[in-house]
């Protein structure tokens, strides 16, 4: 009975899936999860009404809450749910944004692979972009804690006379 099975299948009736198909399914799963939370992004994001198996209703626009209430089966989708949960634990905000960014990065990487760019090259490019983004944030957008609030005294000479009173 087992001798007729192909050597590249683990179980009878199993199906061999190529790398291209797996990659496409992974990107599709990530896009599906991202599409669920996309409309809840931002200050004017829409609320989602979720009903669980026993009929409890949850209305929220928080990405982490939405994703935690979903039963995501695909491993790529589960990774995005875990990403949102980790973002919520560590930062407390930005859960929808990280899911949307991760899904978009996967989609763009998939397009590059379909255009015959090797995945290692794509990963190297993403790592280089990460280093550049961190450098830009540190050099351009960051401000020393020691200088926070001090420039407000130079904004208005009228407030300068009150500086000694408040500090």
Automatic annotation (TrEMBL):
The name this protein goes by in its record: T-complex protein 1 subunit alpha
Organism in which the protein naturally occurs: Lodderomyces elongisporus (strain ATCC 11503 / CBS 2605 / JCM 1781 / NBRC 1676 / NRRL YB-4239) (Yeast)
One Gene Ontology cellular component: chaperonin-containing T-complex
Entry's localization field: Cytoplasm
Family classification: Belongs to the TCP-1 chaperonin family.
Taxon lineage: Eukaryota, Fungi, Dikarya, Ascomycota, Saccharomycotina
UniProt keyword terms in alphabetical order: ATP-binding, Chaperone, Cytoplasm, Nucleotide-binding
Major location category of this protein: cytoplasm
InterPro entries in alphabetical order: Chaperone_TCP-1 (IPR017998), Chaperonin_TCP-1_CS (IPR002194), Cpn60/GroEL/TCP-1 (IPR002423), GROEL-like_equatorial_sf (IPR027413)
Single annotated GO MF: ATP hydrolysis activity
Superkingdom of origin: Eukaryota
Cytoplasm among keywords: yes
SUPFAM superfamilies the record matches: GroEL equatorial domain-like (SSF48592)
